[in-house]
Specification:
This protein is of the alpha+beta class. It folds into two domains: 43 residues, Rubrerythrin, domain 2 (Single Sheet), CATH 2.20.28; 31 residues, no CATH class. It has two helices and three strands; from the N terminus they run βββαα. The chain binds zinc ion.
Length: 78
């Protein structure tokens, strides 16, 4: 099953969800279901590099997710 990354519109939290066809996405932080899916890619389960976590943390801290996505793309292309 694919794992997708979501962005909560209510509290700005980013989280990953294992999505089934009938899954209703709920934010683990605030419980809101008003979320948007980020990049349509499948996260390799158990193979998420530590670097990606750091970049995500940095992006979250800076509130600049668009810049983060570009960097992440470059990382995964290599
Ligand atoms: Zn939330």
């Amino acid at each position: 099953m694919p794992i997708y990354e979501f962005h909560c519109k209510a509290c700005d939290e980013q989280y990953e969800v294992l999505v089934r066809s009938s899954t209703v996405v709920t934010c683990p932080k605030c419980g809101s279901q008003d979320a948007e899916r980020l990049v349509s890619r499948i996260a390799p389960h158990g193979k998420i590099p530590e670097m990606r976590r750091k970049m995500r943390a940095m992006a979250a801290a800076g509130g600049d997710t668009s810049n983060f996505s570009k960097k992440e793309h470059a990382t995964f292309k290599s």
